[in-house]
Amino acid sequence: MSNWLLPPQSSAVARYIECYWFIEKRPEHVSHSHPKLNPDPSAHLIFSPDEQAYNYSHKPTAYKGKGTHWLYPHHQTIQVDHSKPFIHLGVKFHTGALYSLNTPNYSHPSLDTVDNFDANDLLNAANLTVDQLILSAQSNPSKCCKQLELVLLPWILSSSEDQRSDLTQKALQLLGNISISNLGDALNCSQRTLERSFRRVTGLTLKQYLTMNKLEEMLEYLHQRDNTDIEWVEVAYQFGFSDQPHLIRHLKQLIGVTPKAYVKERGFTIDVYGGIDTL
To answer: What are phi and psi of 63, to 5 degrees?
Structure first.
């Protein structure tokens, strides 16, 4: 499995985009055939060859298609079909970015959804094709990132902010340092106004967003340790759970397995589309 991840170089682009990522499975590569994506508050624009199929599923729903597509924020675990060779070049957006970017065909809020995307209009202005982008991603990641920024910058410069997006961005900066119940007071607005704005911009409640962040931190922590080095009681206390049974119930609800089963299977990808890859 070949992969890389790089941050934007342009400060204007970095306002809305967290990173660019690339992952390729060739016929000789051995990897999990059906890894799972953790819940993710970010949207990803995924460039893929036109005839390459994709298949995402979270019971009882499956999303199938071909070529370039959107993977919208999802608060459910999604299983991905990686049984055949594939190439994905991704753009990971900051939480809530699509609201200000006036994304075509994007309705707010869009969650747990995958949607086809015609990349021609976006790429034609820069005289590029999906195949050219992917070729650069394979041979010269730095060049590929520059090409992506050439493509994305005009779109980003046409963005528009409003009171909802401004309030949401301020809330995102404070979340984790201030309790949700005190966040409205810190931002000089009612809690109801804050919750409604945050959900309108991100598609998520404040609690859902915090839960996703805690899950990502915990799974990254587990990923970095051998099975024999993990003390589950300590993990529970470190990540704010009252006891080990509470941690077990939490993980089973979010990702469908117990902590020990997760560590044993290692079939999950920790945000492989824009993050740590366990493939």
So the answer is: -115, 120
